[in-house]
Amino acid sequence: MKMNSIRKKITVCLMATVLIALIVVGSTSITLNYRSTIATVDQMMSETAVLAAERIEQELTAYKNVAMDTGCVPQLSDNEVPVEEKRAIIDERVNMHGF
Predict the structure, then answer these.
(1) How far apart are CA 73 and CA 85, in angstroms?
(2) Distance between CA atoms of residues 50 and 12, nearest Å
(3) Helix, strand, or coil (residue 28)
(4) Angle at 34 between CA 29 and CA 36, to 5 degrees
(5) Are 75 and 93 a contacting pair, CB within 8 Å?
(6) Where are the domains of the chain?
(7) At what angle do helices 83-97 and 2-71 cross, to 10 degrees?
(8) Per-residue b/e over 55-78, b at no fewer than 16 CB within 10 Å?
(9) 41-90, pLDDT tens digit by residue?
């Protein structure tokens, strides 16, 4: 009977040690993986924000250039030109630039 009891104690201690080691290693692995993932996502979001800002800046510059170009059309500021002709000029610009 003593032999059986010692074997059970050793088995229980060994299983407890393995289980504790697995929990510690698993927890550490999960924590490191989580931190790495968060750092990667943070970096990617920062880069994406910079690219999006650059794209928006280019779009706004293009719109500004179209507005400035349209503002330089002399017929639009001439009081003698009828509204229908001015509207046709604006519509032509709208179609030309896809607005």
Answers:
(1) 12
(2) 57
(3) helix
(4) 95
(5) no
(6) 2-97
(7) 150
(8) eeeeeeeeeeeeeeebeeeeeeee
(9) 999 999 999 999 999 999 999 889 888 887 787 787 777 888 888 888 88
Q: Which residues of 11-32 are buried (b: 16+ CB within 10 A; e: fewer)?
A: eeeeeeeeeeeeeeeeeeeeee
CA–CA distance, 93 with 90 (Å, rounded to integer): 5
Q: Judge whether 44 and 38 are in contact, CB under 8 Å.
A: no
Q: What is the DSSP string of 15-82?
A: HHHHHHHHHHHHHHHHHHHHHHHHHHHHHHHHHHHHHHHHHHHHHHHHHHHHHHHHHT-HHHH-TTS-
Residue 6: Cβ within 10 Å count: 10
